[in-house]
Amino acid sequence: MTPRAAALLLGAALLAPAARAPAGPAPSGPAAPLAAFRQEFDAVCARTQDAMTLPDEELRALVARCEALKPLLEKLGESERKVYGRRLQACRDLYQFVLDSRAAAPAPQAAPSGTPAR
Amino acid sequence: MSRGRAARALLLALGAAALGWDFPAPHSYGRVVLDNFASRAKAPPVAFDHFRHRARYTCRLCHVDVGFAMQAGQTRVSAATNRAGYHCGACHDGARTFAGKPIFAACSEEQPVPQVGACRRCHVEGAKGLAQQYAAFSAELPKRPAGGHVDWEVAEANGRIRPLDAVEGVSIPRPPLKMDKEVALAARSAWMADVLFSHKKHAIWNGCEVCHPALYPAARQGSARATMLQISSGESCGVCHDKVAFPLAECQRCHVKPVQ
To answer: I need a labelling partner for B126 at 20 to 30 A (CA). Which of A36, A46, A67, B85 fits?
Structure first.
């Protein structure tokens, strides 16, 4: 047996049990939707600490992503709905708050021109 | 102390006394009784003492990341949510540790709450022994001269406490908050010093979502002013102050801007 063939056989032997092993239970019940929800939730709500520095377009996009997550909540278990429903709403409302605050702020005055009007 | 300042301090004390503001007993200050489901399950309600947790965790961690509401009865915490690893169970799962010690599991028993045992650490009746527990807990912490409450701000500045702001698997990794804007709020009486509201002091423990927009919605600058009557009724600053954060009787801690 050539060394190459021996290595191939050894590799096959090492991989075989893994290939034969029964696959773990696929995420089912509330676990699978929760994993998908958590991934997007973590991404969307990671910006609350620096929300006041984000441009309006980005804030609007984040609010829209929060809204898009709401239907996914319904697929979660009762405990998850209680907790993440509150957290998602707080996160969405903060982004909207920053937008509303900017809209309520007085418009910045035009910079005085160097040349007096004639 | 100058005559003017002494007179103002006396006026403040008289005003606070007239409004019924006082220094509540520090050991029972911040106690919250949770009884959405316990009594129906023939178990004593849960008595949560804020002081035990606020030395270790920021307000934001529990009220934002873990999801505890600021209003009584809104969280709907239950044995089921705790066992599922939410609410108290987010930390009290028997596996997490604090300072090298395991944090006991909340609602780990499937049976009804027994008279003794782990359940009774939270499901307690009355406040027996609470004053002694508080005294032992706060022995090394700085206190306010009036009322004897722990001065949490000084405690943190001195490194006596180092509240954690994140729990792995619960909190979302986020950049640290940079918000040091101070807001001057004009007092409604000419003799009273104006309030200088520090975002820095508040945001470091609370983040943004605890207050905005639920307590303070977007408004034109200068239009968001609450009266002391509203505050003492539990609105605005009164959601925390006079309940968990320092009492309203400490007027000078907010009304800091000298009268012109």
So the answer is: B85
